[in-house]
Design brief:
The chain is of the alpha+beta class. The chain has 18 helices and 40 strands. The strands form nine sheets. Strands 14-13-10-11-12-15-23-21-20 form a nine-stranded antiparallel β-sheet. It has an eight-stranded antiparallel β-barrel with strand order 25-26-27-28-29-30-31-32, surrounded by four helices. It has a five-stranded parallel β-sheet with strand order 3-2-1-4-5. The longest helix has 23 residues. It is globular.
Length: 666
Amino acid sequence: MFKKILIANRGEIACRVIKTAQRMGIATVAVYSDADRGALHVRMADEAVHIGPAPANQSYIVIDKIIEAVKATGAEAVHPGYGFLSENSRFADALAEIGVAFIGPPAGAIEKMGDKITSKKIAAEAGVSTVPGYMGLIADGDEAVKISGEIGYPVMIKASAGGGGKGMRIAWDESEVREGFQSSKNEAAASFGDDRIFIEKFVTQPRHIEIQVLADSHGNTLYLHERECSIQRRNQKVIEEAPSPFLDAETRKAMGEQACALAAAVGYTSAGTVEFIVDGDRNFYFLEMNTRLQVEHPVTELITGIDLVEQMIRVAHGEALNLRQEDIALNGWAMECRLYAEDPYRGFLPSIGRLTRYRPPAEVATATHAVRNDTGVFEGGEISMYYDPMIAKLCTWGRDRAAAIEGMRVALDSFEVEGIGHNLPFLSAVMDHPKFVSGKITTAFIAEEYPEGFEGATLPEAELRRVAAAAAAMYRVTEIRRTRVSGRMDNHERKIGTDWVVDLAGQHYDVSIDADKAGATVNFPDAPAMRIESDWTPGDALARLKVDGAPLVLKVGKITNGFRLRTRGADIAVRLYSPRQAELAALMPKKLPPDTSKMLLCPMPGLIVAVNVAEGDEVQEGQALCTVEAMKMENILRAERRGVVAKVNASAGDNLAVDDVIMEFE
């Protein structure tokens, strides 16, 4: 076995590979840019090598710098993770030239399958059904429009060397093709150093289901069942699960065998993924093959018990797989939620800054449930603008889908993140969405269910009462602490009232509290009483309670006369008053937010790539005003209504913070 491997990546996937290597007794080498000097993967590795400035095109995707690090440390093999150089055949060749193993497929397979145009041609020749499209190179926007018209709208514009949703656009008409074609080329060039674009038919109401394959150099090729990846936003996967709630055994077997046949046709070894679009009749169509470890591989590991990173290392060392297809279990159900550094209340735009609080739920693994968190950050660390916004992958496993979902609900509520915008509230809301719970989902789920974006979850009446009862019991505890005087505890506790008014989410609940040493009973005049049990202490940021025996997890922040409570995707200001205080509070005027309707504010920290208008220009609703780049993604900001530009405060090349004024209108 290898004695030392280098991980040519960063973040959570570098940490993930290091964990398996350490378990196997293999020494590890990390590489890092200027922005990652104090990163978690650097701390975890046995050695670390600096490879350049923060931008990935000056560090992590510079082949010569990785090769230098390999030579300097004497690493015998390199694991590329995903992204960066993981699907770069030139990198695999460069390692082969110096006698270092690439923990991935052969360069020839990467070249054939890693290029989306070539892979679709090979798939078609192998008898795999593919989505209609144009696989040749496209010269310019005019040709893109012509091809799109022949295929029929809507179409998908995709980067040939792409992945992770970068360089990908859906176009519904000619104008969107022209705009999307150029943006896709720009993103592809910036992210992959390859601006080739292809176009295919966009299949409406599809499900995105992929097959995990594993192959060795001894002629063995297996499939490890499927993953459902239909919950996507801007073509970026957000929630994955294994298995799919849609497939039957017959379709699963057919897809798995077809994926294995395709892998064998190109001499594939190592772990890889064959992605399919599946329609409502369970017809499936080849999309692409990812010649690397997928981001969502943990859900496959949880239902099969197979460590894919270990298998990749063993295959790269020349070992034969010690598994047969009939050995691949399908045990229980697994969910994965991707924690992104992006603000769901600002259209999911990237967010950067310091993690002032980062407390994932405890990882557990029992016969009935499991919680796993693959992460690459730590409390006090910085989220950089230079890399992908994903900072963790939270996974749960249960005996069935309902158990996995319930486990995820509790785990998400228990995950504490402060200091940056993040999508935990949105993930929680999806876990409670009836359509998701039913399993009747497509890749259009987010666009259809959240067409105006995400503004927070609205809790049903029954859940609001649970929160109200919990808040009342918690507030009683804080009031006892506030009035407690050493040596006079009993006397002062008797001064705490039992009648309260709980004000939250526009609702008012009159309650009375009967407390004892084991907890508190919260009485409602118009509903059954609720029993609250908890060991929460004022000042704790997380409260784990039981309400009538059912768990309730709350993130807790202090505000005047109450708490800021976050649970199940809702962010609620809860205020508690005595009956007299409630009468007076009702008379207070409401504070109105400042008027920013005549300003274009920067929605995220980023770089101004282009400003499309000038002072005095008249703009129309939907017109592009400027482009902001953050975390390798271009975001076009558009006019919300007709107007005249009064002042432009920023120009191309400027770095702006959140809410900086880009331009003002008359």
